[in-house]
Specification:
alpha+beta; 48 helices
Amino acid sequence: MAIYFNREVQAAASVAAGGLKYQLVQWHPVHEVLAVAAKNEATDSDGSVHCYTHEGQLLEGSSIQRTSVVECMAWEQRRKLLAVGWRSGEISVSSLEGTKDVFEQSSVHRDAILFLCWNGSGSRLVSGDQNGLLVIWRVDTKGSLYPLPVHKHQLVAPLNHCILKYSASLPYSWNQSESSEKAFSWKHASDQDSISCFVTSQKGNIYHISNMGSVSETFIVEGTIHSVLYSHARQSLVVITQMMQLYQYAVNANSNTITLSMNAKLSGNNKPINIIWAGPALLATCSYEDVVRLWDFDRDENYLLELANVDRVPETAHVTYIDYNKTKAILSVATSSGHIVMWQYSPFKSKGLGPRVEPSECWNLLSVTPPIIGLITQMRWGTAKGLLAVNSGQSVHIFSAQVMHSHFNDQVSAVQVSPKSVSVTYHSTNLVHSINVDFLIDGVCVTKEHTAVWGDKKVMLYSLSSDKPVARVAGSFTTTSTVILLYEYSVFVIENGQVEVRTLQGTTKQVLTCPEGAANLMSINGHYLVVTTDTAWVMVWDISRREPRQFSSPKNLREMTSDSIVSVKCNSVCSHLSVITTDRQDHVGSAINVVEMEGNHKFSYTLGTADFTGLQSNYVPRGDAVESRQAELAVKLAGRLLATSYWDNEEPKLLVCEAMLEHDQVSLARSRRRHFTTGLLGKQSTTSVADLTMASSVAVVMFITDDTELLLSEIIPVEEHCDGLIGVAAPVLYFSKLSIIGKGERTDSPCDTHIMRDFVGLDLRDKAVVKSMMKFTACCTEGNMDEAFKAIKQIKSKAVWENMAKMCVSSRRLDVAAVCLGNMGNARAAMALRKAREELPEVEAQLATLAVQLNMLDEAELLFKQCERYDLLNQFYQSMGQWSQAIELAETQDRMNLKTTYYNYGNHVESIGELTAAINCYEKSDTHYVEVPRMLLDDPDELQEYIMKSKDKTLYQWWAEYMESLGDLEAALQFYRDGGDHTSIVRIHCYMGNTDKAIDEVDRSGDRAAAFHLAQRLETDDPQKAIHYYTKAQSYSTALKLAKECDLQGELMSLALLCSEDDKLEAARIYESNPATIDKAIVLYQEGGNIGSAMELCFQYDRFDLLQQVAKEIDVQSDPATVDRCVKFFSSHGEFERAIDLLIKVGKHSDVLDICLTNYITISEELAERMTIAKATEETPEEASQRITLLEKLAEACAFQGNHHLAAKKFTQAGNKVKAMKALLKSGDTAKIIFFAQVSRQRDIYIMAANYLQTLDWRSDPEIMKSIIGFYTKGKSQESLAGFYDACAQVEIDEFQNYDKAMGALSESLKCLGKMKTRTPSIEAKMQFLKDRITLVGKFAEARKLYEDRPDDSVHMCSLLLDEPSLDTAVRVGDVYGMMIEHYAQTGNHQKAYSLMEEMRERIPSVNMAFYVDMQTIELVHSSLGLPMKHGMGAEMSREPQQGDIDEEEVESDPEELIEEDYSTVNLTTTGTSSC
């Protein structure tokens, strides 16, 4: 267990004199450095600040002294920079890094600094003073404040709190750090200079400081502000006034505005000390009371932690301060008595485990420290090692968590009970010695004669006796060794990597060298010393002689593990070693390693797994029973870590380990433990699953086999009042008690013991019996039952066997119990156990049966409850005569057997003559109708009185039957009437000849049984009435039979419709013989399910009106010939819809198509869906072929009728997407064509869609053009895509004369042809042709670009182009002439321009000159030369090319990517000057 050791901080020499009073303590958020502020109490001046390590040692060069008094301190979040605010207004920043400089700033503030706050990056410091001046400083990398502040604001004085919204760790000032949550994320800040925060004044003003440094007043609260808290998780600001009024504000992270969300009055007096967060949304307050008040914001719950429930704290003590350790969930509470009480929060409630508990029970009392002198005014938790700084004004103490030391050897145990005291117990005589030393204890070691205690480099040795409570000092010496062992009169220590053997006075007798490394671990078992080096080598010495000698050759453990080794121990004969390791982060794992000393066998077992395979190939299967038992035990160890391991000092096969839950699960386990019923048979045998789950620590008993394997034998939960395992002396395990910690000198033992389950009840003084049982336990664990029984067969005492049988109940060993019962000669118990194992699936129920046979009644009751077999527990209570418990259990847990329980209890009380109680029980069991008359039959008067009082109709009927048996018919009639038995009344009336009364009774009651009985009596005398009452009794078949026998034709039809199908068919055959009643026969045949006969009669007698009704009953099972006749009949009379419905119903869909096509019936979508066969879940190939064929026929029929959309749908359902696309193409629905092509994802369909889109006006719609490109690309039709780009180029030339874009399109066309894998001669010719065209187009485009700079060269290039023979295949000749004519006209060479016009007319005879040359230019040339206008010079002024349309749809890759570099730059739009 970890307890808290107290180290007092020593005052610095420079300020030690005089009346020193400590003011503030503050831990660095990251480093283990404590800042302490003090002042001269006499003069209230001369302040100083000193920094200490976690051990209380003063850091050199860390002191700051001023004539003023410290008002606040704040550490920078990461660097060792301490900002100190003084009463004089001065700010000091002390750096503990490098040169340890101190930077001063005293030019701005003139009043006491009340708070200092660093931002998350340490680049800004906020300060506020008594006069209301708020200053934001810029800080350089060394920690020095810039002379001029970044921002300065005068606010309402005095300021008292500053809360940064996004700091990595909240700043600590004297006033505000008590009430601040210490974990926020700086990552939310916009930059490293963020300083967004809230500032409050003592008078109630709340200000918000933005990242830009601007100030805005957000709220004003009533009263003096005491504390301010910020919850980052809830995004809320909490303000508490001096009068305990709470205001909660919701903070908007985006707008930095706050709104009031709650206003409440806190409980407690109006003198709050400090208010803090004690968990997420959990507020803790203290105000000079003996309680800590907590308020859970999330659950809206209030509860208390009371000092009155804590031992060792005086009743008059009250709380003076509180602080919370967020990492370990520990709330520390300082009291006026100087004690510090620590509670640890358990997530029991939030986990939803177990029953609902009070919130205060989720806090487990962890520790109570010894009192310190003075009134504690401040506490601060450090960041690591469980460090707690406590300020009492007179002194400062550092509490650090330490592990208590213990040792066990040869029936002697030593347990550290306080930092400087050890309790030594001789378990053979129960004598307890107390040893006190003057140093902090680092370890203890005991033998029968001596005890060693060491610490602070000093060793004290004491001689103790098992019969005299006297301890004398046997010797002492100094050593740097942290591991010290005793054996007889020798002391083993590690010095300089070697093992030294010393006397009790410290004289070195011998040095044991370790050639394979430096020794760092030692252990002793028996007379074997095991030494481990830092290089993982292990050496063993036999120390039984005067001089130790090496027992075996060194063994290298590095071959087995690469982790750090923390424990190596040997068994009693040194044949095996147990090894415990840690990882690189010093985390102990859950694996125990066993190494064979002489051989190479190694074995590793991980807690919580069922993997029992060794590191070597030496694993031997143990059989299903053993494997199952091992797996069952392994599951109970899941989630645990290995703590220690101990070998027994006599039994070499026995190894006991302690397994603990991880740290964050311990408090949860302890809470669960308090709220569940733990244990099965008491303290010594508590091994239930609930115990093991809820125990924070368990002892695992294991046996090592001859094959170096570990097998689990028993798991023992460590009691809650115990700390942990300290040793084993089989069959007893020894544990240290928690209750002794901090109690000082005691006379009772600080140890608790636990006996292994197989040894409970045995006389442990009989070594032979203990040895036999040990061998028995080991063999049972290995599954070697033959050897197990050989081990105990010498035990002859029946008492021993009975005790062992009882022990089997706790150990759950039914197989062993059967043998024990046989040796006891208890045949009845053996038979009961055998039946239980055959019939009861629950092991606990079988154990309970065994417990009952062994008269272990309490244990049996607990076992029945544990397995929740409340039916068996009910039987157990009944057999024990515990009827009240049996009835209570049946009413709450065993409702199924409630009536049976009452019935059995009724039999019991009847047997003892308590008839009234028996009647009550029989009534509750619903058996009083039989049992009460049986019980009271010998007393008719009492029975009649009971029946009359009960007014129960069933009892009335029983009494009426009894009266009838006695011949008293009138009395019987009366009781039958009271009991509502109308049948019996009618029966008696008929027996007495009162037929009219019987008829009246039937008519009045309407009872069917009475009506049937009356009808039977009337069959002979009045058949018509008999049929009437048969009908009333709903016995229609009997009524129909009577009507046929009496030839009552009028009643036959109505009765037949009410009867079964067979009766209907029989009546139909009767009507069929008479042509006048054919209609009735048809109806009855139809109702009777004989559709064929009904239709046959319709055809035979031309009853077509009835045929339509009969046809509705036709289904797939009907006769095909009959169906065909009906279809032909409906078709011949023009009733095609009825014929179609009938064919669809019987599944003849092909015939439906024939009727539709033959008779020109339009196939609607509804009809098509009805004709579509649904796809079956498990469709055979034949069924699939039929379904697809029908769908294709249906689609072709729809296409024939012009319904192309429906045809496409059916083709798609048939899986023929190509035909579906063809149908859509015929429909001309562009949107659906594009959509279908995209979802079909087939090459042919992509090409078909693109071909169709080219028939549209794609020139005016660039989206359709993109779809065409995309579909050709997806369809991998490069030749078609090339042709489309060629068309685009021609459009650019013809429509817009944009030769640049045309060249880009032609280039894309050439690239597409180049991507074709197979190039035929025709493709090669096309590519060459495209190259030539690209060359000509490029030349002309270049000439047009050149014209602006060099017009003559441009015209010369055009004249050369005119000489090209294939110019007209790429460039319009008119464009070339037009450009040249325009040039010469503009330069005034009209004669040359005219000659070019004539040349153009000769080259293009039908040319419209105005199409290529501006009309004004033409007129200018002619007028300047005095020539008349000729034909063709302006007759054609426009040209309208015809192209198609196309829709856009996204392709697999962006269309902009499909058009590569050259052409991708061309803007294909319909606006501007060109489009493609």
